[in-house]
Amino acid sequence: MGFEPSPLSRIIDALLRRNPQLMHHFQLTRMQQEWSTLPAPFPEGTAPLSYDGATLVIAVRNIIWKQEMSFRSGDLDRAMRASWPQLRFQKLVFRVAPLPEPPALPVPSADPALRLRTIQRTTAGSPGELEFRHLQDDLQGSEEPFARSLMRLLESRLPEDKP
Question: What is the DSSP string of 62-127?
């Protein structure tokens, strides 16, 4: 029997597709982390502030930057779509606001006790139970060791099936 690993990225992608708000937050965080890679002058006086799937709000340093960005919005739009082709916004809005700091990249916790938090059993019909059931369906039959251990964890956290 062949071993076919299931990439973790596939599992994360499946989760994000089921929850559009989570997907938009993920895309906004990624944009904020990678904003400095855009061509000049965009990263110096602007930063992504919010994204809801249709409208992307860009914070600008001051009214002068807002005016400049309104003139260069086409250039910014093209640069963003080239950098993040998965974005599906229809409207760019510029708002004078303090530029947010880019989120820090996740770093594993140094304290092992923090990683050993117990996940409680879900209740029948709860959103958590439904999501766990979807993950369980996606991972069913996988031979990948990580997927099998994740299946054991899911099975221990799902409500017990009543006969």
Answer: SHHHHHHHHHSHHHHHHHHHHH-TT---SEEEEEE-PPPPPPPPP---S-HHHHTPPPPPPPTTSH
From CA 84, how far away is CA 19, in angstroms rounded?
19
If one compares 133 and 51, the residue with the highest pLDDT of the two is 51
How far apart, in whole angstroms, are the C-alpha atoms of residue 113 and residue 97?
Answer: 39
Give CATH 3.30.300 domain extents, the chain. 19-96
Q: Which fold has domain 19-96?
A: GMP Synthetase; Chain A, domain 3 (3.30.300)
pLDDT at position 163, please?
43
Please compute the mean of the pLDDT values over residues 49-68 and round it to a whole number: 90
Residue 112 falls in which region: left (phi positive, over 0), alpha (psi -120 to 50) or beta: alpha
| Mean of the per-residue pLDDT values of the chain | 78
Whole-angstrom Cα distance, residue 60 to residue 95?
A: 6
Q: Could you report the per-residue pLDDT of 128-141, keeping only the tens digit for each? A: 677 777 777 777 77
